Fold this protein.
Amino acid sequence: MTAEIVVNLHMHTPYSDGFGTHKEICQIAMQHGIDVVIVTDHNVWVRDIEGYFTAGKRRVLLLVGEEVHDRNRIPQKNHLLVIGANRELAGFAENPQRLIENAAQAGGLTFIAHPVDPELLIFGEQDISWENWEVFGFTGIELWNGFSELKARVKNRWQGVFYGLFPDYYPTGPLPETLKRWDDLLVNRPEKCVAVGGSDAHALPMKFAFLRRVIFPYSFHFQGVNTHLLLDNDLSGDFVRDRQMVLKALANGHAFIGYDRPAPTRGFRFYAHGSEGSAMMGDDLRLGTGVTFQVRIPQRAECVLLCDGEPVQVWEEQEACTFMTTRPGIYRVECYLTFLGKRRGWIYSNPIYVRG
């Protein structure tokens, strides 16, 4: 029996440049049905705050990681999300490879944050993309980052104000350059590369002329880009056990990214079956005499199956899709919906690795 949970990660608090406390974030998360929140403040690991927050019959599991980058570098590129290390690692920020290795030694997972993060100079934002692509040993990348996407969509100040007031109009999907980078990593390096979706939430207060409001509040992010994990068992309320299950599922890539605003993505599944066994997202499967993929979608949508980054099958307005192959490769799924008059990315699966 597979249990599905919804994780929202890459959140900021006043310990760095966010404006909501850990408790406030958890209270809002419970209102929106989030199961796990992972806070990653800049260059600070906040101790002794992880655990379950409850309100009546609702609860949310809070995990605390760190977003590490070299403050002495201008611009401050190479941001790395460290999750599960249980120690301060900002001291290794100057050398990304040493940072990755020390995080791994501490039992932590590492995800390259906002791999492509363009400048937005009209609002004082610099390009803080990742540059050190010679590194190895990291767990994966943040495929869809809500704030980086905004920076890429805004072309002028008035457009920035519009999206601040009506944020549902800007999310379209992961940046094409980031998708291409992920496929290149999957195909051209021996290590697996897990994709997660991150909010990069700050809940920024804005003042523009007579307008004063919080732009991109935490509630917006909890209804937006989430990482859905597939666990062996339901969360039990036992902090130590549940934390271990969440980190294991993240490490194994038993996950998909869902943009839950247009429609809930809970219930999406991507499996493979063959003569050599069965696999789910993140798993390996030997090709044998052939493999059959099965995709289950929460509602009718456009579904694309890709192999090594190239589409091999497209289905229109389907809820269940089947595809048979005798070709080894790295297979993943993208789903699209029309929302607010525009075709938007809805679901991005982690891959199944079919080995020859």
